[in-house]
Design a protein that fits this description.
It is built from six helices and eleven strands. Strands 5-4-1-6-10-7-11 form a seven-stranded mixed β-sheet, with helices on both faces. The chain has a two-stranded antiparallel sheet with strand order 2-3. Strands 8-9 form a two-stranded antiparallel ribbon. The chain is globular. It has a single domain, classed as Spore Coat Polysaccharide Biosynthesis Protein SpsA, Chain A, CATH 3.90.550.10.
């Protein structure tokens, strides 16, 4: 079974204020941490970067490609570079640098066991409100709510089919779900936080120190 990773690092980081994937974290770039985890757990790695960065060599990756205007479009750019004989494709956001290789292996194992897709996720601890025009219209039952992370793994044929019509979503699991695929959850990691605001990098540095 051939497993390839698509590491998405093409975002413009509008909320962060600068390309966070190239910020320093523990003496390495944020992107380096994500690529290392993908390399340790997959047979091949495609990294999707901003088009103007596509000519740069990324030694840990097998292929470097330019991304698209949206996250989903960037994933499709990465999929096009994954060999046709890949059995499982893992999609990971470079902005989650503390995802351990064990998470990659866990979602891949779930797909190998028969799921169309697998996401790592954590149960939601907060009470979640659905709001319209600043008014609460519903309080959701958090017993059924999980916060999805990446990496996310999929049977290659299922993921390619889900992207065929060039749909848009905030993660690939949503596209596979919409296409009727069965997506399962594996336990995520509390340290696997997404870097969204500048202070998230400070938190990541502190978490990295605790991880040793």
């Amino acid at each position: 079974m051939s497993t390839w990773a698509v590491v998405v690092a093409a975002g413009n980081a509008s909320r962060f204020g600068r390309p966070k994937q190239y910020e320093q974290l523990g003496g390495k770039r944020v992107l380096d941490w994500s690529l290392a985890a993908a390399r340790a757990s997959c047979d091949g790695v495609v990294v999707v970067v901003a088009p103007e960065m596509a000519a740069r060599v990324e030694p840990v990756a097998d292929v470097v490609v330019g991304g698209g205007q949206t996250r989903s479009a960037s994933v499709r750019c990465g999929l096009a570079a994954v060999p046709a004989d890949a059995s499982v494709i893992v999609v990971h956001d470079a902005a989650r640098p503390l995802a351990p290789a064990a998470l990659f292996l866990a979602v891949v194992a779930a797909v190998a066991s028969g799921a169309d897709g697998a996401v790592c996720a954590l149960p939601v601890a907060d009470t979640v409100k659905r709001v319209e025009k600043r008014a609460v219209v519903e309080t959701l039952d958090r017993r059924y709510l999980w916060a999805a992370q990446t990496p996310q793994a999929f049977a290659a044929s299922v993921l390619r089919a889900a992207h065929e019509a060039e749909p848009e979503a905030t993660d690939d699991a949503a596209l596979v779900e919409a296409a009727g695929g069965r997506v399962v959850v594996v336990e995520g990691d509390p340290c696997n936080r997404k870097l969204t605001e500048p202070h998230d990098l400070v938190v990541a540095e502190a978490l990295l120190a605790t991880l040793g």
